[in-house]
Design goal:
Layout: H1 2-6, H2 13-34, H3 41-52, H4 54-67, E1 113-116, H5 120-132, E2 138-141, H6 150-153, H7 165-168, H8 184-198, E3 204-205, E4 208-216, E5 221-228, E6 246-252, E7 255-257, E8 281-283, E9 298-302, H9 306-317, E10 321-326, E11 332-335, H10 340-348, H11 351-375, H12 377-389, H13 394-400, E12 413-416, H14 419-425, E13 429-432, E14 435-439, E15 442-445, E16 450-452, E17 455-458, E18 471-474, E19 477-478, E20 485-487, E21 491-492, E22 498-500, H15 509-530, E23 535-537, E24 547-548, H16 555-558, E25 566-567, H17 579-585, E26 595-597, H18 599-620
Parallel strand pairs: 1-2, 1-7, 2-3, 4-18, 7-22, 8-17, 9-10, 9-17, 10-13, 11-12, 20-25
Antiparallel strand pairs: 4-5, 5-6, 14-15, 15-16, 18-19, 20-21, 23-26, 24-25
Helix pairs in contact: 2-10, 3-4, 3-10, 5-8, 5-15, 9-14, 10-11, 11-12
Amino acid sequence: MDKFFSDLRFCSKPQVSALKVAACALFVTVDNFSGCQIRRPEKLAFLYLQVTRPSRFSSFIHRLRANYPQAKRTFIFVSPIKARPLGIVSHMNTTHISSATLRDSSPDSPHDLVIIGAGLSGVDLAHHVSRNFPDWDWVAVDSNSDIGGTWNTFRYPGIRSDSDMATFSFPFKKWPHSGTLGSGANIKEYAREAAADIGLLDRLQLSTYVRRANFHTDTGLWELTLSIGPNGTDMSEGGARGVAQKEQTIWTRRTHFASGYYKHAEGFTAAIPGLHNFSGELIHPQRWPENLDVRGKRCIIIGSGATAVTLVPALHDMGAHVTMLQRTPTYVAPLPEVDTISFIYEALLPERIAAPAARHTHIWRDMIQYWLCQGVPTLAKGFFWLLNRCFISAEEINKNFRPPYNPWDQRVCKSPGGDIFKAINDGARVVTGKITQVEATGVRLQDGTLLEADILITATGLELQAFGNAELAIDGVVLPMNKLVSYRGLMMNALPNFSYTIGYLNQSWTLRADMTSRYMVALWKDVIRRDQGFAAPKLPEGARADKPLLEMESGYIQRSVHKLPKQGEDDPWRMRHDYVYESRRLLASDRDHDMAFGSDATTAAKALATEVLAAREAAAA
């Protein structure tokens, strides 16, 4: 092998390029389809740089030492590379929390844009707006006490992304860490740094809940009614955990909801018989108490989703005796601890193209795996079984990790380095069974077994809501969710200058968030260039619109589907959870398709308000 690399110096440039691509393809393929950390990819990168890129050799070695401190001085590793431990990182910010105050706008001096939400979606849109509309008067509000959205709300041990950071990070800001997945604290700090870079922190008002968004057809403006709490107060749900200090009304030409679809005020707790009987500590992961000591305590985690799969190894490492109690198993996919794809590309390719190349490799890998799971589910089930068998016994897999549904009918949980399986091998337990009753000392199962516990953790899911639970209205007529139809998964029928961000269920949220931002910027430019003022989707007469906005069988989606808008049967009224498809159809699409502009948009809004009002009066008669 060493002789092969030493001969590269005598190859022509096209030959070297071909070998470089082949090397990337080989190691990326092995990494993608093994599900486990491949051995010594860094040797390839090291030898390649030493022979063909001596000018980059020193910087590469410096980065190698910084990210992988266990490297030997020879730089030839004899064991799989591992990410540095994330540890428990404080959620306290290292840059300032925004203390901006919104000016009192009026119909005569409205804002150009109000962004509702300061998580990854809001930061992404703010980036594109600041670059494309430097003269706009735009502001942002968030009901939480700090920036970060989901990554500010969820603070349980081990909280991490369930998508690789090569695609979950912003395309305009490099993710600075080496792990395949990102910790919640690191993601939150990353979002805050991006917000500071674009000036969002100076335009953001926190602890501000949007109660109502009312479009006035006479002025063509949105009137937003805000409930504002004291600085540092969480105002989710308008003060479910805070007290409104004042009300404020602001006016804007455009409204964009980047608030996601999770209910931040509280999670979902299943109707578990006798839950009130438990004498120990009862915790929902969405409201994790600070400084909780679990060392030596018996912890039962009820649930089998991503939260439960994350908590098992985290609590086990903290010294707890952990049992994950699930009614139905879920698919768990082990991932490399370190993003080997990004590592190889950064070593072999120029810096300006390494990150985009890694990003698109991850995208295609995820989509191919999704297509295979949906198209050949029997083969996919066998593949998951083999991956799990690398860590645990066949008996354990057959008992607790073989779901009754096909892969990706519900979300697949990720396990970096197979951490949940390692915890099981070290004493953690997974139990599959139905709960008969919660007793004072634990949980009684249908087979009579009593699982004793000191701490009971109900990781039973999330509550969904649309637009932060704000009321949407036209000329004071409140619109029911079942009257709203999604257009391309980013606008709503007959709502002028209204948009929102929603991400993928089977890929990284940020992929679609960034596409949404770029689409809306392009549409706003079209409207300004035409001097038309307004743009609103217009559902064709007779078009069917009865599909759920989120098409997946996961329990948290199915029990909340009635709270969300509908979507249509075909483009452009249907959102496809397929980045490869949407990147072609969405960004290269005709932005005039089924759209109304100018006075036609306000006429469509009036017609929708009239229809809703007539239906309400008929129901009351």
